Amino acid sequence: MSIHLMEVELFGGSHSEIQENKKHRNERRIFTEDEDTKLSSLVSVFGINKWPYIARLMDNRTARQCRERYNNYLSPQISNAVWTNEEDLLLIELYKEYGTCWAKMVKHFNRRSGNNIKNRWNTYLKNEYMKENNIDSLFNSVPVFSDNSGEQKMMSFDQQCDYNMWFFIE
Question: Under CATH, what is the fold of the domain 3-74?
Answer without folding.
Answer: Arc Repressor Mutant, subunit A (1.10.10)
